[in-house]
Predict the structure.
Amino acid sequence: MGGGSYRERLSTADAGVRDRSLQPAEPGVTRRAVEREFERYLSQFVDETYAAFDVAAVLRGSSGSGSRVAGKLLNNSRPLERHVVRPKLQSYQQQILDQLEPVLDYAAADASFDTYADEVLSRDLYWNALRNTVRGDRRDRIRERLLARQRSFGDDLAPLVAADSDDFWTAVTESYEKETATDIVRTHFEFSVPLREDQNAFAFELTIDPGEVLGGLARALPTLDVEFTDEALRSMRRAEQQVIPSAEADVEQAYES
């Protein structure tokens, strides 16, 4: 079916509640296909972020008592990437996948998003990286933006989750016009948007145990905590430049076949 995104077809009065007639009685093949395809693109995004990540730049930016430890690690950045950076990025990947579950529950349910908001927020990568210094109205505004982003994702996924097909791309072409599918990719695969909107509200940090990374005499060195928020944004933007065009090409191919 065409006619724009599911969100656009909701009336103003019913913006938070879906018509049960459009939804399957229980999670089905299409939902599992959505999960698999999202994980595939997310894995590509994490791989590209890792490839673009410059751990040396992060270490050079560290200062104070940890600078001596950073200097030691700079000479051994490859083990640091394998033992610290990649596991950190993989933990973020799992957070995003965990958050997808309540978002898909909302997409498939006849219920207000408020029913799922607390669970969605508790699994939000950015909410969990919010600085303790962010309080009051600013904290509330960020909370609402993060929830609105996930509610929009759920709204856009609703017709796909409801589709009667066991093939992901068949379900996509039956559920959306090509322009709508492309817009969904461009909107929801820009994972860096919250960080771009309010970069200094978040802190992404690495805890590095030199002994675990280097072994030997490095076990006598103190643990080093470094922030990599700037590098996270830079590397994510680079990853988006690879993943989004790839996903757009997949959309193009699906509608041509």
Observations:
- Residues 6-10+27-256 form one domain.
